[in-house]
From TrEMBL:
GO terms for molecular function: ATP binding; phosphorelay sensor kinase activity; protein dimerization activity. Residues 321-410 form the Histidine kinase/HSP90-like ATPase domain. GO terms for cellular component: membrane. InterPro entries: DUF7134 (IPR055558), HATPase_C_sf (IPR036890), HATPase_dom (IPR003594), Sensor_HK_TwoCompSys (IPR050482), Sig_transdc_His_kin_sub3_dim/P (IPR011712). It comes from Streptomyces laurentii. Residues 208-273 form the Signal transduction histidine kinase subgroup 3 dimerisation and phosphoacceptor domain. The chain crosses the membrane at residues 41-59, 95-122, 129-146, 152-174. Keywords: ATP-binding, Kinase, Membrane, Nucleotide-binding, Phosphoprotein, Transferase, Transmembrane, Transmembrane helix, Two-component regulatory system. This is histidine kinase. It catalyses: ATP + protein L-histidine = ADP + protein N-phospho-L-histidine. PANTHER family: NITRATE/NITRITE SENSOR PROTEIN NARX-RELATED, NITRATE_NITRITE SENSOR PROTEIN NARQ. The keyword rRNA-binding does not apply. Its EC number is 2.7.13.3.
Length: 412
């Protein structure tokens, strides 16, 4: 009966005897013969010598009770049986069945039969091992009556044959179980290593995405200031010296702050919080929202902050940082798309009810200079709010302006 061979899995990780066992386990006789390694040659040679030794001992015992012709035939058959042991890797079942029949008439084939039974137990499932073992027990029993030894009782001869067959079969099944266990452990280790690599890659990708969002939120605000004031200098070269100096000072300060923020983000990559976080600048929270508003006011932007949160320090740091980033991005967008318009920030909330931030600005009254943007700021804010357990909506207002509404949880 021909069976389908198992697919080869990770054969480059397993020792040769495990790979060979996996290939032969359930494989039909038409499968290609694997190349023997040095270890395989050593094992096969040792088994051949043991089978020959057992055959020689049986031949010496049989010579005392048989004729010379019978002994000669017995020795020839025993020698051929020992040579057939070299086929145990390719034809374990066929070899075992043949030697079971041969051993009935040639006791010198007993050692080769034990080697064949061991190979079957190592390479075949239990069902085949069981019926071949029963066949070996039956033929060894018949041998006691076909080639009896006058000095040994039949019961003792049957008992010795059964014990030897059981010991060899159990040993082979133990070796098979150990090989399967080793193969399973190695396969599990390969899967665990692959899963660990995937988890590390996923964590690295998430860290990169978080860093990219953080860089966008931090640098977009600074670079927008640079773009706006550089554009003002370009379109008004005749501006008063004081106004030019003020714009140049804002450009210089914004560039300096952008570099500082960039160094901070890169520093997180070089020195994680658990190793050197104390040396990093503190992350913005709701407490620093007033500083953000004061900064944009100094840059010439009209901002009204209406907040009923009396203790911003009581807001969780993660929630406060998210509110800060949303307000920062909203002010950046208003500066780019509605320059000169007054922006209103309304902050409401209390523990248990959550924090609500509304940012609104009317439509611009004059021409709007083109300021390039990535278009990903509001998408990133929506993702940030969702990850924090809140929600964010935005869109054009009825008066032609723009409105943004965000809600974030504030646990008690």
């Amino acid at each position: 009966m021909t069976r389908t061979a198992r697919p080869e899995r990770h054969t480059w990780l397993f020792p040769s005897h495990l790979v060979e066992a996996a290939r032969h386990d359930g494989a039909g006789p038409d499968q290609g013969r694997p190349r023997r390694t040095v270890r395989d040659w050593v094992v096969d040679t040792a088994i051949f010598l043991l089978a020959a030794l057992v055959g020689v001992l049986a031949a010496e015992t049989s010579a005392q009770y048989s004729s010379e012709v019978v002994n000669l035939v017995d020795q020839i058959v025993g020698g051929l049986a020992c040579c057939a042991v070299w086929l145990r890797r390719r034809r374990p079942v066929g070899l075992a069945v043949t030697l079971c029949v041969v051993s009935v008439f040639a006791p010198t084939a007993g050692g080769a039969l034990l080697a064949a039974l061991f190979s079957v137990a190592v390479r075949r499932p239990f069902r085949e091992v069981a019926w071949i073992g029963l066949l070996a027990v039956g033929t060894s029993t018949v041998q006691v009556f076909v080639r009896p030894e006058p000095g040994t009782s039949n019961i003792l001869g049957i008992g010795i044959g059964v014990v030897l067959i059981l010991l060899v079969t159990a040993w082979g099944m133990l070796v098979r179980s150990r090989r399967q266990l080793v193969e399973a452990l190695r396969d599990r280790a390969v899967r665990a290593e692959a899963e660990a690599g995937l988890r590390a890659e996923q964590a690295q990708r998430q860290a990169r995405e978080a860093i990219a969002r953080e860089m966008h939120d931090v640098l977009a605000h600074r670079l927008t200031l640079l773009s706006v004031h550089a554009g003002a200098l370009e379109f008004r070269p005749d501006a008063p010296p004081a106004q030019v100096a003020r714009a140049a000072g804002v450009i210089r300060d914004s560039a300096h702050e952008a570099l500082q923020d960039l160094r901070e983000i890169i520093g997180v990559l070089r020195a994680p919080d658990e190793e050197g976080g104390a040396a990093n600048r503190p992350q913005p929270t709701l407490v620093t929202l007033d500083s953000l508003v004061a900064e944009v006011r100094e840059a010439g932007m009209k901002v009204v902050l209406d907040s009923t949160v009396t203790e911003p320090g009581a807001v969780p740091a993660a929630t406060g940082r998210t509110v800060y980033r949303i307000a920062q991005e909203a002010l950046t967008n208003a500066r780019k798309h509605a320059p000169g318009a007054e922006v209103t920030l309304t902050l409401r909330g209390r523990p248990g009810e959550g924090l609500t931030l509304d940012v609104a600005n009317p439509a611009p009254t004059g021409p709007v200079p083109h300021v390039p943007g990535s278009g990903q700021g509001l998408i990133g804010l929506t993702e940030r709010a969702t990850l924090a357990g809140g929600r964010l909506t935005h869109g054009p207002a009825p008066d032609g302006g723009f409105a943004l509404h965000a809600w974030l949880p504030w646990p008690v």
